[in-house]
Write a structure and sequence with these properties.
Distance between the termini: 53 Å
Order of helices and strands: EEHHHEEEEEEEEEEEEEHHEE
Radius of gyration: 19 Å
Number of helices: 5
Number of strands: 17
Largest sheet: 13 strands, mixed
Amino acid sequence: MTLVLTLRKRPEQRLDLSPLVPHLLAGKSAASINSIELQTTKVRVTVGDAFRLRMGDAGRIRIEGACERLDGVGAGMSRGAITVAGDVGIQAGRLMTGGRLIIGGDTGHWAASGMKGGEIEIKGSAGDRLGGPIAGEIAGMRGGLVIVRGDAGARAGDKMRRGTILIEGSASDYAGSRMIAGTLIVRRKAGALPGYLMKRGTIIVGEGCTAFSPTFVDCGMHALLAMRLMAGFLKPYSPRTAALLQRPLRRYAGDMAVLGKGELFTGNPD
């Protein structure tokens, strides 16, 4: 049976839900879980104050009635599964190393920030800096798979080092900015300057972008084996994206303003 946390009402302050992950709740009693503190200010709020708890297997957690004031959902998660019905706040899945996080609505900024492993599926849209680092960090996402069924905000994949981000909708400006490595796929259209200052890595934009950086070099049309292998990997998650990767794509090399070893592909070069 799944462990269920039902939000009693919209909280008056933002709550930090990072303590509510499977490996931290394993073996705890209902009383112990209800006494866990979640506050982000001086006002003390416990799990019991904010949620109705129905005990079950702590390896499978369901959060019902969620809203954008719930921050850090699934942060630091190493195993198990968390399913959220509704929207969540900032830093969902931050520093995840394993397990599966499914969010039924939208997420705030910095979802999957610093993620190292596991899977995140966002059925709505993501805020800015999806997979990006927070202030003071030198790299963003470092592994794992993130799937966004809707759109993503600005700087998706900023400073990304490893892993795969798939956005089925569109992305805002500077998608893949300062990328170090890894793969970012935007199935529809990106905003201005995708790949801005990227050093390495791969960006695929299915329907082009609003403005290309002048520091990328057109390398012509290609039908690469690597893209067909990527299509096979992604087909169970997104058949439409797999179909995009199986067609020839136009390759641009860049960003020549920095190291210039990255590549940007588009399915709509004209």
